[in-house]
Design a protein that fits this description.
- The protein has 458 residues and is mainly α.
- The protein contains 18 helices and two strands.
- It has one domain: Hydantoin permease (Orthogonal Bundle), CATH 1.10.4160.
- It has a two-stranded antiparallel sheet.
- Helix 2 packs antiparallel against helix 10.
- It is globular and about 65 Å long.
- The N terminus is likely disordered.
- It binds phenylalanine (PHE).
């Protein structure tokens, strides 16, 4: 069992900005560029986006502050941080289960995340070689279908991405990663803006703006609301300890509120820009549909790149940057487990990374097969899902485990922790009351209402 520590044995970020970059690197990922557009398409646009934005503001930001705060106070892996804090606050050790559930969620998410990142890796080569230029729109769709229905190829890309992730995790979060994020995230933003510029000239830009921002509440099913709220957790990396463990490496004097708000705004901006880049393209090709599912960006963006001047270069760069965005997120998915293995099993960082990598890789095989042999349709609260095990893993983690984890974190930070302690750690002045109100009442109540509504309790 670990003893009380106030300094993390894993090291510390070199500055507040390094933390902001790393946490933004964790938050901005496939969730923004791949998942946000396709679920927005599946759930009908505007009203879904509105629920997502409200969730980010009222649930996401206060819970992000709580996670950073708990992490920095505990300065250990989320499992040990929660155990230590529960003890320090005179509460039951069972609160460390937040950490355990987070570790499990991290494994499950990374297992499919890595497969999808593998698609993006494959597309670096598909675009770079000019393959998408030559084939026309039907051909572009075929390239996608062929890729995902070939488990062997998917397995190869999944393996490469897992190795990439484990190499960085093994080297420690600080070396390599800070530098990568510093240069590559701004590059991603610039390319995204170029794509939005292209999309503005497709003649369907306003249709896309309407689709994204004009709410049609008749499309808002229980499943849509749950998915939008779950996505707020997913996209901000909340509810499973990733932000908590990053917070445990945060210098003492950094403002938790300011950093959390910057990270959330950056993350939301990237998602909205991705939507504004992708939907005009969707609407300008009659054969594409917003509800195309997980393949949406792989079928739309190549169409734009095939026609754009310089599309070969922009396209290749863009998929490289998606891979990088996924990379900086995937290391944070596994860091809570790695930190725990180092603390409690006395493993070296390298060994811990290898064990976690192998375990996640194995689970990932289920997703590899989800688009071919293990594909099946099922009905999720009124929306038909086509990709069997992958969809189940996604719903289980993003829609259930992360909101449940976030709910418990809110209860711990708001009700179990002494006010004196959270006041001291957040150092907020008057606005402390706003956070306190959100974390004690609003955030947990909203999560609960959405879930109870599903079971038709209310
Ligand atoms: N936030 C990441 C994304 O949007 C995914 C993620 C979820 C990362 C949970 C860490 C923890 O792609």
């Amino acid at each position: 069992m670990s003893e009380v520590k106030n300094v993390s044995i894993h090291g510390q970020w070199s500055s507040r900005w390094a933390f902001i970059l790393a946490a933004t690197g964790s938050a901005v990922g496939l969730g923004n560029i791949w998942k946000f557009p396709y679920i927005t398409g599946e759930y009908g646009g505007g009203a879904f986006v509105l629920v997502y934005l409200v969730s980010v503001a009222l649930i996401g930001i206060p819970i992000m502050m709580a996670e950073v705060m708990l992490g920095r106070r505990g300065r250990q892996s989320p499992i040990n941080t929660m155990r230590y804090l529960a003890k320090a606050e005179g509460r039951h050790g069972i609160w460390s289960w937040i950490g355990w559930m987070g570790v499990l969620a991290g494994f499950l998410i990374l297992s499919y995340y890595s497969v999808i990142a593998g698609w993006a890796l494959a597309y670096v080569f598909r675009t770079g070689s000019g393959a998408i230029q030559a084939v026309g729109s039907a051909g572009i769709r075929n390239i996608f279908t062929e890729l995902v229905s070939d488990p062997e190829r998917l397995l190869a890309w999944h393996t490469i991405f897992m190795v990439m992730t484990m190499v960085v995790v093994a080297r420690g979060v600080k070396n390599g990663l800070e530098t990568a994020v510093r240069y590559l995230m701004p590059a991603l933003l610039i390319l995204l803006l170029i794509l939005v510029g292209y999309a503005m000239n497709t003649g369907h830009f306003y249709e896309a703006v309407d689709f994204l921002f004009k709410p049609d509440f008749s499309k808002l099913t229980g499943g849509a609301i749950l998915t939008a709220m779950g996505h707020a957790f997913f996209t901000l990396s909340l509810g499973m300890g990733a932000i908590m463990v990053y917070g445990s490496y945060l210098p003492d004097n950094a403002s938790i509120a300011r950093t959390s708000i910057i990270i959330s705004i950056a993350d939301t901006a990237v998602a909205l820009l991705a939507g504004l880049a992708i939907f005009p393209i969707v609407f300008s090709f009659p054969e594409l549909s917003p509800g195309a599912g997980p393949g949406l960006i792989f079928q739309t963006l190549p169409m734009a790149f095939a026609q754009m001047p310089g599309g070969l270069i922009f396209g290749t760069l863009f998929f490289i940057l998606i891979v990088v965005a996924a990379w900086t997120s995937s290391i944070s998915l596994i860091e809570p487990a790695v930190a725990w293995l180092i603390e409690n099993r006395g493993m070296t960082r390298i060994m811990a990374a290898v064990w976690c990598g192998v375990a996640t890789w194995l689970v990932g095989i289920a997703t590899v097969l989800s688009f071919s042999k293990w594909a099946f349709d099922f009905n999720f609260l009124g929306t038909v899902k086509h990709n069997g095990v992958f969809d189940i893993l996604d719903i289980l983690t993003a829609n259930i485990m992360l909101p449940a984890g976030g709910f418990l974190i809110a209860i711990f930070a708001g009700w179990m922790m002494k006010e004196k302690h959270s006041r001291e750690e957040l150092a907020l002045g008057y606005s402390y009351t706003v956070w306190q109100f959100l974390i004690k009442y609003i955030a947990p109540a909203l999560v609960l209402v959405v879930i109870l509504n599903l079971f038709e309790v209310i």
